[in-house]
Design goal:
Blueprint (H helix, E strand, L loop, with lengths): L4 E4 L8 H11 L1 E4 L5 H9 L8 E4 L13 H4 L8 E4 L9 H6 L3 E3 L6 H17 L1 H9 L3 H14 L7 E5 L3 H12 L3 E5 L6 H7 L1 E3 L3 H7 L2 E4 L13 H5 L5 E5 L8 H10 L2 E6 L10 H4 L4 E3 L8 H18 L16 H6 L1
Parallel strand pairs: 1-2, 1-3, 3-4, 4-5, 6-7, 6-9, 7-8, 9-10, 10-11, 11-12
Helix pairs in contact: 1-14, 5-8, 6-7
Length: 350
Amino acid sequence: MPKPIILRIGEDIKYNHDFYNQEFLKKYDVISNPHTDRVSFITALKNKEFGDFSAIFRPHFQTGGEMGQWDDELIALLPPSVRIFASAGAGYNWADTEALGRRKIWYANGAGASDEAVSDTALYFILSVFRNFTRSQLAARTADPAVFQETHKLIATISQNPAGHILGIVGLGSISKKLAYKAKALGMEIHYYDVVRLASEEETRLGVTFHETLQSLLEVADCVTLHTPLNKHTKNLMNKNTISKMKPGARLINTARGEVVEEEALTEALKSGHLSAAALDVHYHEPQVSRVLASMENVTLTTHVGGGALNTRINFELNAMKNIMAVVGHDGQFTGKPLTPVNEAAFVNA
């Protein structure tokens, strides 16, 4: 019996060669997509160039996006044999996961692989926005003794310890649960808002306080950190109205997706002093960073490296393979559900 076909998009595997050769290739035949633009990829699907493949495999989230948005136009062309789209990376705003679910195609991401790295990044941001580390670093890098002395004196008058302050988490998933644990070690009090409330036992274990509404959380938090996927409900979640609900002098952190925060509203709030500081790993027009925000000494900026650790990349790649193996049997039929499903509701209700 021929092995099920797996369509790989983007670059080949880089890290988990033993698992790939000894486990994955024993079960599947992997073919790669040679088409580097959407038009030719669509033509290949229409011509059934890849045959009746059983899964789409994207081992590296920085490649494999040459066909653009996975919308109804692309999804409608997939053969009925497709069981799962397994991708590296945590984000999935480039794929209509609900549309995939309606076709009975699982979508699985790399959830869990980047939890440690992203939560560490958010922890660094908390320290930076409370202690004004970016302002201090910029001053030190001038190598100017006068600027050094001036900033040395200023920082002590405008900085605070995170201890004793309320950290407001928007979206309490696996990453932000790790962050809650780390922030509590700094002496912070943890509050959260999520569309799905944790079980009371888990809230007690984590030592977190739930808010029924986003506004309720924003009104009490000294620092708000965002951990939500980007979708139609969360785009511009932090806008002029919601930012105005935040405490005067509060701080805003975003390690989720750039378009969750309306940058003009954030800029206004920082200029007016309503917000005292911000930290962004992700940006609205990424890879273009707002030049206005970049000029502000009370804004910490990084280049979307929240999950950017080698451990993350290795596990993203490995998890994508394991998700396929959990779903696609030797005959190409379903054998179970992925380890990290994203579209379970849409799949089950289809």
